[in-house]
Amino acid sequence: MRQEYAAAVAALQRGGIIAYPTEGVWGLGCDPDNERALAALIALKGRASEKGLILIAGDIRQLSTWLEGIDDAAMARLIATWPGPNTWLVPDNGRASPLLRGKHSTLAVRVSDHPLVQTLCAAWGGPLVSTSANRAGEPAAMSAEQVRETFGTALDGIVDGPLGGRDRPSTIRDLMSNRTLRA
Predict the structure, then answer these.
(1) Nearest by Cα to 94 from 107, 78, 103
(2) Which pLDDT tens digit goes with each residue over 77-119?
(3) 3-state percent breakdown (helix, strand, coil) of the chain, nearest 5
(4) CA 114, CA 58: separation in Å to the nearest integer?
(5) Model's pTM, two decimal places?
(6) What is the C-alpha separation between 83 and 161, in angstroms, rounded?
(7) What is the DSSP string of 93-145?
């Protein structure tokens, strides 16, 4: 494992916040099961906790406990769009922290097709929180340099690499209604 990934995993295990490139923008991430890390990430961004966060994975199996209870037809819709820049709002089965889902009864999940994200999630051993690397209301960072300028030493690690070639954040769809919320 590259030292950058090992350092990021160590930071995550300590409850830290890391930055990494995603399909279209730089993201901030933490352990989705660590309440203190979730609260720190929300505070760092200055984001309203009611909004919720996204879980990003490198493989659908990494989301299995969050997807339990989804019927076969709905699961087929997920599988048909992953990996890729498609975030789905799935019914929370009671597994997600309120800090992950915010005020919603759903949880936002995505299986990324970005090789760096896939490698990072594999090294971590599961999904990560993923939210754009910016302070609330500001544009998302498009480079590691912009991440450093915005967050300085407040981050516990940066996994440097290229963005995934897309010029905007992922599409967001509701699994139960199949409605597109963000194109």
Answers:
(1) 107
(2) 999 999 998 999 999 999 999 999 999 999 999 999 999 999 9
(3) 35, 20, 40
(4) 8
(5) 0.94
(6) 19
(7) -S-S-HHHHTTSSEEEEEE---HHHHHHHHHHTS-EEEEESS-TTSPPP-SHH
